[in-house]
Amino acid sequence: MLNKEQLQTIIKLQAELDLKIVQTKMIEESQDVLTAKFLALLVEIGEFANEQRCFKYWSSKPASSKAVLLEEYIDGLHFIISIANNLKLNLSDLKIVEQKYDNLNLAFLDLFSETLALAKEKNLSIINQWFNIYYTIAKLCDFSGDDIFNGYLDKNKINHLRQEQNY
């Protein structure tokens, strides 16, 4: 998983991107923006699951490439870090513990559940459990901490460019 330095860098970069979006789009931070971020996170988790294809029992087509899966994983990471920044939750205090799952379907279902719980309760203990699950999914997908960190840096650059191009 990410080391503390990598996580702190991501938190800082996400705060800078969020500020740029607010300024570029002239958005007033409000509960509506936070609600939109939670919905966006759920959508990104769904897109990740869709590319993973673990739930598609009717299909013999394999999961998308590791690069595609990592990109979807990173999209979810962008939103959860943005949400944590919004809520002023100190992610440096996270205690990540790998979870045990018989299959990815159960992990994704738990991740959806924790996302909805976080949208209601907005506390560090729920976000810690969210990260436990997300970390476990990363391991099951064979993503290293460096894969995640470098993937985040690449996507962050793309997101800044998109803002500059009036995305």
UniProtKB/TrEMBL annotation:
It comes from the Bacteria. Pfam families: dUTPase_2. This is dUTPase.
